[in-house]
């Protein structure tokens, strides 16, 4: 059907523009990890072969990253996977080792015809990323730094360009290994057409060269899973191990899902970083309350008489009452039930009103009041509604006595006597046995470490009797 005013040349031009049209690609350069079941959902209405293979994919591969399909997805996926494998290895020294190795590749680049000034800016950006990731390993945010770098248009283009230069230089330095795979092309022509252009996609030959120069010397394996229409219910996988490096030891594996013209990154559960440890449960402080004593010894009110309470049976408190003090009576059971911030649990016994007497007489104390102890007021503090992180300790202190008269009243029945024992009368032992006298425990014995010889005193040996008529001296044994 022809439209008026349009020639065949116009239609040919429109057809050419339609064939060359490419929709604008949006989205991140490298996305966050997503469940691989999303791929099966994407192919739910596609060919049955794709449906079967994508349905089996989540059974082995749990997550994947979408890489922007702008012609550089293969280069970007391998570059991102390289740095991510170093992060998952967990050794920050590995980043310094890789920087040293890549810096030593400058002689290969120069031998391939690349001047230093043509690649040093791109190389410095890759080295800077290695240093930043090595530093971020200590703070635990290396994955975030890598994600941010590869989603920066300029930074990720610098890193990808450096990978292109490395690949081209390696292929030129090892032409016998790659020339047989290039039908009708030279290595130099292939690098100029398929490797170095900015928007050129990675091909099998250039992918193999990039694996040889970047991944294998680092001990990183590469797996490529091809999602195509070949027979089978699972994707076809090709694995490249670093056999000739590190004795085949691998520090990680990069897994790529290839769909015609596009690469994404796949992950197994073992590739994912371990989940962070669960947060520590907040410890609830224990609310404690201590009493000052089990009972109140009123004898302490008398100066110098506190030693009397250390003698068994000399306490003025009933032993049963001491163990069943009012301080630990009903108030203890009401400790957690009370809601008031502080309440007085007991009231002191009021002092009796003094009665004037004509003459001072000793106070008569009834025998039944021997164990009567007035209840000392005790204050209990209710636990706070919101406990702080520190241990809350409340000390229950006895309230001081109201006045001096009450203190006299509760002082107890003990009164110091006016008669005191003269301790000087017992300064010397009144007698000494023969056994002790001959023992080395005697200070007068020569084997005692505090040996002190006895002194003879005539006054101790003789008694002088004086009479009005004549003094007489007589030995003590004769008295």
TrEMBL record:
GO terms for molecular function: cysteine-type deubiquitinase activity; ubiquitin binding. SUPFAM superfamilies: Cysteine proteinases. CDD domains: Otubain_C65. Its EC number is 3.4.19.12. It catalyses: Thiol-dependent hydrolysis of ester, thioester, amide, peptide and isopeptide bonds formed by the C-terminal Gly of ubiquitin (a 76-residue protein attached to proteins as an intracellular targeting signal). InterPro entries: Papain-like_cys_pep_sf, Peptidase_C65_otubain, Peptidase_C65_otubain_sub1, Peptidase_C65_otubain_sub2. GO terms for cellular component: nucleus. Keywords: Hydrolase, Protease, Thiol protease, Ubl conjugation pathway. One of its GO terms (biological process) is protein K48-linked deubiquitination. It is an enzyme of class 3 (hydrolase). PANTHER family: UBIQUITIN THIOESTERASE OTUBAIN-LIKE (PTHR12931:SF15), UBIQUITIN THIOLESTERASE PROTEIN OTUB (PTHR12931). This is ubiquitinyl hydrolase 1. It comes from Elasticomyces elasticus.
């Amino acid at each position: 059907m022809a439209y008026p005013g349009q020639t065949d040349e116009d239609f040919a031009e429109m057809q050419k523009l339609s064939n060359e049209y490419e929709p604008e690609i949006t989205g991140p350069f490298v996305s966050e990890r997503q469940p691989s079941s999303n791929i099966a959902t994407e192919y739910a209405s596609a060919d049955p072969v794709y449906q079967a293979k994508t349905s089996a994919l989540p059974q082995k591969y749990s997550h994947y990253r979408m890489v922007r399909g702008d012609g550089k997805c293969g280069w970007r996926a391998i570059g991102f996977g390289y740095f991510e494998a170093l992060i998952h290895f967990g050794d920050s020294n590995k980043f310094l080792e890789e920087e040293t190795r890549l810096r030593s590749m400058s002689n290969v680049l120069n031998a391939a015809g690349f001047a230093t000034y043509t690649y040093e800016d791109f190389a410095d950006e890759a080295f800077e990323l290695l240093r930043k990731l090595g530093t971020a390993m200590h703070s635990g945010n290396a994955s975030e730094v890598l994600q941010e770098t590869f989603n920066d248009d300029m930074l990720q283009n610098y890193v990808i360009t450096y990978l292109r230069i490395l690949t081209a230089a390696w292929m030129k330095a090892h032409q016998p290994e790659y020339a047989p795979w290039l039908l009708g092309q030279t290595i130099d022509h292939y690098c100029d057409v398929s490797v170095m252009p900015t928007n050129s996609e990675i091909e099998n030959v250039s992918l193999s060269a990039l694996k040889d120069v970047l991944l294998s010397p680092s001990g990183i394996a590469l797996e490529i899973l091809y999602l195509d229409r070949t027979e089978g219910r699972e994707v076809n996988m090709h694995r490249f191990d670093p056999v000739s490096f590190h004795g085949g030891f691998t520090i990680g594996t990069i897994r790529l899902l290839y769909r015609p013209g596009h690469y994404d990154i796949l992950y197994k559960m073992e590739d994912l970083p371990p989940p962070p440890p669960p947060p520590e449960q907040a410890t609830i402080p224990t609310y404690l309350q201590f009493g000052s004593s089990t009972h109140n010894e009123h004898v302490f009110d008398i100066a110098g008489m506190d030693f009397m309470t250390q003698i068994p049976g000399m306490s003025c408190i009933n032993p049963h009452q001491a163990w069943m003090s009012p301080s630990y009576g009903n108030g203890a059971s009401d400790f957690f039930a009370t809601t008031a911030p502080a309440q007085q649990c007991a009231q002191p016994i009021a002092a009796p009103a003094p009665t004037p007497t004509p003459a001072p007489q000793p106070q008569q104390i009834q025998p039944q009041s021997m164990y009567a102890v007035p209840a000392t007021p005790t204050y209990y503090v209710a636990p706070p509604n919101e406990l702080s992180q520190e241990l809350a300790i409340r000390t229950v202190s006895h309230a001081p006595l109201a006045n001096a008269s009450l203190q006299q009243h509760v002082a107890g029945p003990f009164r110091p006597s006016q008669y005191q024992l003269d301790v000087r009368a017992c300064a010397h032992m009144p007698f000494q046995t023969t056994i002790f006298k001959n023992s080395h425990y005697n200070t007068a014995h020569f084997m005692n470490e505090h040996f002190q010889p006895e002194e003879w005193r005539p006054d101790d040996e003789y008694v002088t009797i004086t009479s009005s008529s004549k003094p007489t001296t007589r030995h003590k044994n004769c008295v």
